[in-house]
Amino acid sequence: MKRFSVGLVLLLLSTFSIFAQNKVITVSGRVVESDSKEPAAQATVQLLSLPDSAYAAGIASNNQGWFTLPKVKAGKYLLKVSYIGFLTKYVPLHLYANMTEKRVGTIALESDAVMLKEAVITAEAPQVTVKEDTLEYNSSAYRTPEGAMLEELVKKLPGAEIDDEGNVKINGKEVKKIMVDGKEFFGGDVKTGLKNLPVNMIDKLKTYDKKSDLARVTGIDDGEEETVLDLKVKKGMNQGWFGNASAAVGTEDRYGSNLMLNRFVDNSQFSLIGSANNVNDQGFSGGGGPRFRNSNGLTATKMLGANFATQSEKLELGGSARYNFSDRDALSTNYSERFLQNGNSYSNSNSRNRNKNTNFNADFRLEWKPDTLTNIIFRPNFSYGKSESHSKSESGTFDSDPFNLVSNPNDFLDKSLWGATDDPLEAIRVNGSNSNSLSESNSLSANASLQLNRRLNSRGRNITFRGTFNYGDNDSEQFSESLTRYFDKEEPKEDDDNRRYTTSPTQNYDYTAELTYNEPIAKSTFLQLRYKFQYKYSESDRSTYDLMPGDDGKGQEWDWHLGNDLPDGYWEYKDKDLSKYAKYKYYNHDVNAGLNIIREKYRFNLGVSLQPQNTTLTYKKSEIDTVVKRNVFNFAPNIDFRYRFSKVSQLRFTYRGRASQPGMENLLDVTDDSNPLRITKGNPGLKPSFNHSMRLFYNTYNADKQRGMMAHAFFNMTQNKISNVTRYNQTTGGTISQPENINGYWNAMGMFGFNTALRDKRFTIHSFSRANYTNDVSFLYNNDTKVNDKNTSTTLTLGENLNGTFRNDWFEFTINGSINYNFERNELRPENNQEPYTFGYGASTNISLPWSMTLSTNITNNARRGYRDASMNKNELIWNAQIAQNFLKGNAATISLEIYDILRQQSNISRSLTADMRSVSEYNGINSYCMLRFSYRLNVFGNKEARGNMRQGGFDGGGHRGPRGPHGGGLGRMMRF
Questions:
Q1: Exposed / middle / buried, residue 411 (Cβ in 10 Å: 0-12, 13-18, 19+)
Q2: Does the pLDDT value for residue 128 go beyond 80?
């Protein structure tokens, strides 16, 4: 018995000894800035073993300052926490064998006074800094007019551009989400953030590639990165209520109002936003165009929404709900030239579209960490939409350029002028078409995703399950009538007179189940395995009914026109040639294997995805009733290599390959002639296409000189690209399009950005250069040989933006300019070659005057040159101005007068070029007007620093609205190339 007792004691001691040597203890805590108590995002946290200070574990804090180190053994350690601009802090730790978790609480870092003093003495705020793969812009380095929203600030950022639809690109990459202090703002919706976040709340803007939830938790690169713009709120503003409210009226019946109310307290956010206006957010561009921006019609909008986010050590919640209404009235004129082997075809059109859209969206996000090893993320979303539209168009096709006969051919497209004795275009008309339609639709969608991750050891072994479900239901109907006339006297053809009613209910749902596993196979080397199953179901049933007048066989005559009620018995006249039923069942298996190597200086990820797919299509149209099955095998390789020269300098290379299958309906030998001028056909012989995409990125930053450099290089190539072969019918002026595979398409682009402060840090210079080369290919049908001739169209674009700024406490002055030069070449039709270019130069200033008054103005000359049509070669001198007066206690209120396009020279023209066509479009818009605006800033319960931040400088507020609305705005003479 005694021997047994001694043996048991020895066994227990051995067990405890072994337990003590295992890595079972987790160290966690939070890092904050001592002065503001704000989280220190991406602070470096290292655990050093004593007495030799050897590296034991390390991690970077998340956006809220939290960190959890990989598990370590019991022993004595030194916790080292470092953060740029703050003193490094050391915390001694003694981890005992009987503990599994050590919480060190909140670690407050003190500011590096020497570094801060040096920065204050030698420099103004740098425009942009670089931290590894993150670009950080200082809001205070960019002056915006009083009351400006985020969109105004983004326009000024080096390398940033905003298109006419509100999409943002920074250094050539599209921003997919907007976040506030690391939390999604209204589900990350970019347009909502641009229009509603005031500049005066923003301290810094960071842009980086945010990994998906799966990649962030598991470390497995799933290729679903998205570029985000993350806004950091000014220090002290997370202590209470703050917000803005404004209302404005103007000439040309313009109006605008918006409201934003926020409560930010520690790790909780709540925002309420609302707006109503009939103007664009065109604002003050800061000069230096060229900004031939399109208003694309007149739009009135209304919006109301609420957003919340909160976070604790284990639980993070967020969500939003928003209502949107828009009423758009768009008038457009278009002129296009189609390249043919034997001469060209010319088309002109006028259109008017009135669209009303109502949408409601709600989203929610939950991330729960019940313990240090488990992570659960749940994201449900819901949306409902309703739309009504009325469209009216008139068009004509000509066998020679109609501008050679009349100054504005678009005045002669109405059917009342066809065949008139004084028709100046009679000799060259090929066809004419007038159409009118009404449509309504209702849509409902819901989706949800659930992700569960469990870490299995401290070396990186983990397993993750992820499931998603999506549901969509859409119901639409359309009433239409059209008349098409053909003018070929040698082969006369009857008019196509159509009156139709069409219903198109569709329903779809899909779900996925995904399992991933990450296994450490060597030091900082991981094998990544993933299996994903996906099922998709989609069903659509388009029914078209012929409402043309005539004897219905029952003694009844119809004379239906748009706006009338549907006639009795219309359902007996279903047009089987134009009706279609399609049901898809899609099964996809995705097996992914990857190798991830992580070292102190570099990271290398190599992977390949194998995807066997099975699709079944049930298709019914006219006499066709078939079930088609397709089994394909796709693969997708990817490479991601990053090398870090320092914390502010890195090189990154990525490659991704993707196989794409043609649509099932494109593989059917079916003809769609619902539009007699735009007939489409399927092609059973289509092959899958494969896309190669490569990107090379380098950046560096010198903090002492406030000098940064950034370089991007992109290359894309598509094998077996699917392109339409378009056959032009010279008799009718219509086209017959059929998809075909073609090789030879590729695109290469390079960008280089450079910004620096001069010796006198009040002066800064920024340069952004870019080059883009596109080798586009298409087929031109040769009517003589009856074969498709391959045509190559190349475009080389060279661009440069250069600006210089002087800024002190009360005055900012910027001069800037840009040029974009295009070399356009067409292989089969060299007579269409041209070298158009646009350039712009201008200046802007923001002045803080006495008596709390500010003045902002800019003037820009935009110019076009080198177009074949002399009417396109023109200048536009755009001048905007604003004067604002702050008043009330703490300058809480502002009244401003804003004047846009003072010289009335801005136009709304867009131009496009492909391998087989070029076109120019002009839209209605109101560009020249003035507005009187009243704004009020609210700050309640915030600290003194917050109140000062809200009103300091007088330049960090503002809002400029440009042209849009439901009425007014005409079109001038139709522009050509």
A1: middle
A2: no
